[in-house]
Amino acid sequence: MITQGGSIPLRLEQVRDRIAEAARRAGRTPDRITLIGVSKTISTAHVQEAVEAGLADLGENRVQEAEEKIPQVRPGPAGLTWHLVGHLQRNKARKAVALFSWIHSVDTAELALRLDRLAAEAGRRLDVLVEVNVADETTKQGIHPARLGQVLETLASLENLRVAGLMAVPPILPEGSPAAASRPHFRRLAALRDSWRSRGYDLPALSMGMSDDFEVAVEEGATHVRVGRAIFGERPPAGAAAG
Ligand SMILES: *Cc1c(COP(=O)(O)O)cnc(C)c1O
């Protein structure tokens, strides 16, 4: 449900309440769930409003847009952490390392190696998540579950990246379908995490759930939800915003 009325601070509060309720339903502690406001296509002024209202985590999906926006947004009372939630092309990796603390979209061992080298050069440590293609869509970004082990093994050997966990972007829900349609995908990601955890990989974070289904994601164990429209309102039509 996307509320169009109301101010950004009000919508932010509503999203927070819905996360807290979903957490309680699932017997979870709401303060273990990080709300990332996805600010792609949103003006700096509107992003700043959310930050002043206490939003401490922001996500962008394109390095180029983030490069313009990030220096213009002032950290609020709760600080500010930037997350790259969209696909990362190898030629943008250096900029991404300079701009973001978290990268949710590592999907090849090659990209992991490159990020590690660039993080070392920059004297930084990055938190990364491995993006998994949970629905097996041929057109989607993300690694096939069968190849996840390879990437995790590579990541375990890298000193400048901390592997926080797994991320997924399930298929877009057709108009009017219930949020619960995403549940099997969230379950699949959580089950994958559990299976690799039992093989000795510590993967505490699950980045899953967007405006249309974040409550379901919280019920299924999300630690990071990536919410754009429910906080900032509808974006301009795709085309202008795609990428
Ligand atoms: C845009 C985007 C989101 C947020 O989507 P909304 O439907 O606006 O909540 C989350 N994750 C990724 C990877 C995105 O590109």
How would you sum up this structure in a few lines?
With 243 residues, the chain is of the alpha/beta class. It is 37% helix and 16% strand. The protein starts with 7 loop residues before the first helix and ends in an 11-residue tail after the last helix.
Write structural notes for this entry.
With about 240 residues, the protein is of the alpha/beta class. Helix content is about 35%, strand content about 15%. An 8-stranded parallel β-sheet has the order 7-6-5-4-3-2-1-8. Helix 4 (about 95-100) packs across helix 5 (about 110-120). Bound molecules: pyridoxal-5'-phosphate.
Topology:
Layout: H1 8-25, E1 34-38, H2 44-52, E2 57-60, H3 63-69, E3 81-84, H4 93-99, E4 102-106, H5 109-122, E5 126-131, H6 148-156, E6 161-167, H7 183-197, E7 205-207, H8 214-219, E8 224-227, H9 229-232
The structure holds pyridoxal-5'-phosphate (PLP).
Pyridoxal-5'-phosphate binds next to strand 8 and helix 9.
